[in-house]
Each structure stands twice: as structure tokens, then as C-alpha cells.
Amino acid sequence: MARYTGPVCRLCRREGSKLYLKGDKCFSDKCSFSRRAYAPGQHGQGQARKKVSEYGLQLREKQKARRIYGILEKQFRLYFQKADRMKGITGENLLVLLERRLDNVVFRLGFASSRTQARQLVRHGHFTVSGHRVDIPSYLVKPGEVVQVAETSKESPIIKEMAEGLATKTVPAWLELSAADQSGKIVRYPTREEIDIPIQEHLIVELYSR
To answer: Would you list the domain boundaries of the chain?
Structure first.
């Protein structure tokens, strides 16, 4: 399955909740979900009245998580399998793994307005991790590592625009932002309470446990 390249606002409408896939636009009056909070398509408004099965609820939660983090099905299943082998609660382990992705960390630090933009910036080699250039969005960061804008990228117009707002950026407690250096340190792994996404991860666990 290829990566989705269509209108991302349709994804929010399909899942019935805001997934915040377009950065600042999601907080403005231009947000499509705010104006049409029903599934896309000819019969979208009628779908809201249909009774959803238990399997359907589980599937929708999995799809929401995939779409929020921009991950394909095969890769998402691999994350779940890894989370299942770890100590602790599988659902929480899964979300922590997803939060540790480099593209997500770049987004959380305020270096990009959305995870999609963060993924593109990482792929183009605009960031280093502890001094080494990393262009793999799925790279899993570890405590003590420092994510920083590459020196050769600081004159890029998009990076300059991003840097202007770093001074007022609030980041999660598990990250530490240095606006002056355009860098961020991973202090520790996030807790479930610090992962502010509208996901009921136990439904994903139930889905893969069938």
C-alpha cells in the first residue's frame, strides 16, 4: 500500500475527530472538520447514524493512530509486535515507541508545524542527532540524545521561519528545547499522560489480539 497523498482533511472527517494533520490550519476557521464533521462522500452524513461493531471501533482507533503518525500498515504492525515484547503495558509501549520517532520529536520540539512537514525535513537531512546527520524519520531517539538543526540548514527559509517562533514554544516535559542553539534534548521517555493524542490504545491491542 502506497502512502496516502490525498487531502488530509478527509482523514479527520473519516475518523470523526480532529487529528491535527495540517498544523496551524487545524486551529483556524479554515479547518474542514470544523465545518463538516461527518465522513466524506455522498453518504457521509448518513454513516453517523449507523451502529458500529466492536471490530469497527477497534479498527478506527488503529487507523487514527496510523494517520496521526503517518505510518503504513506493515510498519505499524511491527511497532505493535515490538511493543508487545517489551515490559509493561503493550498499548502504552506502542504510543511511547511512536513518540520516539525522529519526525515526531522534530514536530514536538516546534521545528515543524506538522508531522508531515517534519518527516520531509528529516528526509532532506536538515537535522542531526548527537552530531550525526540522520535522514530516517523512523529513527527512535533515546534519552541523552540531542536533536539539532544541521549547521548547513540554518540559512534555509523554512528553517529560519521556524526558528522565529522557538522562543515562545512550549514542549513536553520529556524534551528540553534550546531555542538559541536550535536544538532539543531527549530527557527521558514520555509517560502516557504526556502523550496528548485522542487514542484509546487498548482498542488497538484488542484488535491485534484477535
So the answer is: 9-98+198-208, 101-186
Q: What is the CATH number of domain 9-98+198-208?
A: 1.10.1050.10
Calculate the CA 160 to chain-centre distance: 23
CA atoms within 13 A on the CB side of 10: 8
Centre a 10 Å sphere on the Cβ of residue 132 and count the other Cβ atoms it contains: 7
Distance of CA 163 to CAs 27, 112, 135, Å? 20, 10, 20
- For residue 1, pLDDT over 50 is answered with no
pTM: 0.80
Q: CA-to-CA distance for 167 and 177, rounded, in angstroms?
A: 9
pLDDT tens readout for residues 52-79: 899 999 999 999 999 999 999 999 999 9
